[in-house]
Records
---
Amino acid sequence: MKITACEVDSATKWPSAELLVTNRSSKASNYIVQVEFVDASHRRLSEAYATTNGLAPGRQSRLTAQGLDQITAEITSRITDVSRFAS
């Protein structure tokens, strides 16, 4: 699980994070990933979720966690929670 990109859309001002999810388990799995967007002083500005279902063992999925709060500051993102459930 890793963040591959983080940005604020210039038109909507919404934050987003691109994620790469790898199923390292032996069964097809569903994932729910929570991401937070923070400013330079680590103050939380927004959060977002991304999901994928039925990800086969050893496979990867690229996801987008899209926030809906308008942000004008420079941001970074970090994964705050991951839930995995067998499909």
---
Amino acid sequence: MAQVTVSLDANLAIDVMTLSGTRSPQDAVELILRDYLERGRRTGTRTGDAADGHRVSQERPNTQEG
């Protein structure tokens, strides 16, 4: 896998290390990015996309209460 070098502010790197519980800034950033991408995938799976519009009906079923 290709690697990319990114410069970060030291305070940002420390915050990321604290959040992820790692001692290496590189590992911390990698974990945070992987988590961010997974959340996006999970959200997309749960909410669907524009092609799923056929599942949503504008009509609400009449329910009796009481």
---
Amino acid sequence: MPLVQVDMSRKMYEAHAKQMSVELQQAFIEALDVNPLDKFQVFRPRDEGELVFDPDYGLGNRQNLVLIQILMVHRYSADQKRGLYRAIVTRLVAIGIRKEDILIGVTENGFEDWCAGRLHGE
């Protein structure tokens, strides 16, 4: 059950959030074989000045940061995670988001760290 949290400018949110939600979910299905009904996303549109970033970090030329934070169970290989990143970036670029603006971070934990209305194994 990945939990995806996306911070972006309000302008970017208004232009892309609905399609971005679809594309993010498809990336998880494609890259990690996630159940299509396993969708938990939080979009946080930010006003000007709330997203502070170095435009020259990494690839450089970052203009409008789209910060994607993913919390998920530690069960995927490094290759699978790279496939997820590739799928996310490819799908978001296809809807008009610049690849230079995308920053993805993953935090992993165990099944015992989740409670979705019932304990794991019940």
---
Amino acid sequence: MIRILMVCLGNICRSPLAHGILDSKLDTEAFKVDSAGTSNYHIGSLPDKRSVAVAKKNNLDISNQHGRQFIVEDFETYDYIYVMDKSNFENVIKMARNVEDIAKVKLILNESHPSKNLEVPDPYYGGDSGFDDVFNMLDKACNVIAKKLKQ
């Protein structure tokens, strides 16, 4: 089984969306998708209601996910670790134990926009349209990821 982890800051907006989107594109018998945050702000919390709403609008249900914090052991558990922005990339890399751990970590939008190092903006303090924009960015990146993983 191939394991993929999506990471943002609080694990209530972007990474739960990425988790749900990619999970919907892969065979759950062959792939396991999860999400985490680099902070401990929302451990045990449900995704932000706006993330749940935009997912539902796109026929996905992420309402059963719960926030958790990224831990060093995630490097052992997951084959791919996709982060939403440069700050979280740095936070995850700081926890890496070796070059193999570092090699697993990628900015998610580099999948849909190779080598551009673009970031998924945090929609938390914005309006509902920010969640739509984030969903669309993540959907495009997850299409590329899913295609690569299925090959």
